[in-house]
Amino acid sequence: MSSEAAVSLRGISKCFPIYAKPGDRLRQFLFPPVARVAGAKARNYYDEYWALRDVSFEVFPGEQIGIVGRNGAGKSTLLQIICGTLKPTTGTVDVRGRVAALLELGAGFNPELTGAENIYLNGSVLGLTNDEIAERYDSIVAFADIPGFIDQPVKQYSSGMYMRLAFAVAVHVEPDILVVDEALSVGDEAYQRKCHARIRKLRDNGATILFVSHSAGHVTEVCDRAVLIDRGEVLAMGTPKSVVSRYQKLLYARTERQDEIRASLLDDYRGGVGSLDTPALPAARRAVAQPGGDEAYWDAGLVSQSVVDFPSRGCIIKEPGIFTISGERVNVLRPDEDYLYKYQVCFDRDAVGVRFGMMVKTKAGVELAGWVSHPEDSPLPHVVAGSTYEVSIRFRNVFNADTYFMNAGVAGMDGEHETYLARAVDVVMFRSMRVAGSLATGFINFQGQASWEADR
Ligand SMILES: Nc1ncnc2c1ncn2[C@@H]1O[C@H](COP(=O)(O)OP(=O)(O)OP(=O)(O)O)[C@@H](O)[C@H]1O
Ligand SMILES: [Mg+2]
Q1: Ligand 1: which of 76, 78, 182, 215 to mutate, most ligand atoms within 8 Å of CB?
Q2: What is the arithmetic mean of pLDDT over 163-171?
Q3: What domains are there in the chain, each with its CATH number?
Q4: Of 129, 175, 198, 262, which shows the fewest CB atoms inside 10 Å?
Q5: Neighbours of 243 (CB within 10 A)
Q6: Tens of pLDDT, residues 313-357
Q7: Mean of pLDDT values over 74-82
Q8: Residues of 155-180 as b/e, b for ≥16 C-beta within 10 angstroms?
Q9: 69 in ligand 1 pocket by Cβ < 6 Å?
């Protein structure tokens, strides 16, 4: 374990035995097969299922790591190994500090005991003394906010109540490491917001957070790093935005292309072809027309390093860029001025129900504003193969001084459903200029006006 890591995983693999018949489990236990010939492998009564294969990474104190991946990828298995509730088949795991966990299958409450009794039981399992628990008891109950249920056995709780209590206990033990497995997806949005705010507080106090989520937005918004796991293997690790883009590429790929995409992600990861923060960009993306005119509106250093081109489904997006109304290419934008976001779309197949779109996002990947060329119920009815469309979307730079990323997308009908025919993520990066003395805060300048009166 490197001297400063909070969690260190080295070569973690996990094999589950899969029994074809219920009786095989007992048979394996009572009569474990032995090899008949010296050196030969004994035949077991089960098949092996490798839920994790050779997973290695470190998490540093104070980091918030998001783990993403498809269903059955191995995410929960990995968290259970980190928490010590499952033993790896091979490899070593080192964890430094007190771990509190919110796992899919519950927090280890005793179903027969009341909520109040479980607070004491769970608190002491997590390393608090009775006095420490008593001190925090009221605050735990207030945070869980399950009026009338705290003195009922937890077997009578709904899964939402159960998770509320588990979360309240976990955050009140002030863990060094908090492990959260999708638990926040129960509960209403206000409660989720409360949990996230509490996690933020723990993190501000130096805790390390590992959390599994299917919400790409959340991972990009709150994590420092992300890990993509698929069929038990790490396919990507790096900035949340770059990992989430890769995850979505895999998730939204046509079934017949998934293996190919998976193999190329694995190759990139294993071969370390550029870290995820500097993926190799297609040459065409780099070779943007050099802007003429005012230097101040073009910064050659503003080149997106997280471009992801999704697999084409009948068209490709070329030459995306921002232009002034008079046609000059720019990437440093004046506040409150109008610009054109332009790109070409070349169709190699006929397409129906076509709409062109754009999206502006923060550095953390939060979607701020988008626009589409046609309303959902009246798209371009038919586009013929071989045609090229020049798309131009006029927009006002309402964004406060910061750096932003843009997507371009082409939607079309695939049978009954609208789908992306082409999608290019983070293809354009721009900066909005600072205005001296601006009164706007946050990302969007909504042209507020403040007034006030003093009562003498
Ligand atoms: N105790 C077990 N015995 C046998 N197989 C198991 C066991 N636990 C998990 N698995 C298998 O291991 C794989 C990984 O499961 P895991 O629960 O870690 O996935 P996950 O990434 O958390 O998925 P999800 O997003 O659906 O929660 C799955 O194929 C699952 O069926
Ligand atoms: Mg899971």
Answers
A1: 76
A2: 89
A3: 7-97+176-247 (3.40.50.300), 283-432 (2.70.50.60)
A4: 129
A5: 26
A6: 999 999 999 999 989 999 989 999 999 999 999 999 999 999 999
A7: 94
A8: eebeeebbbbbbbbbbbbbbbbbbbb
A9: yes
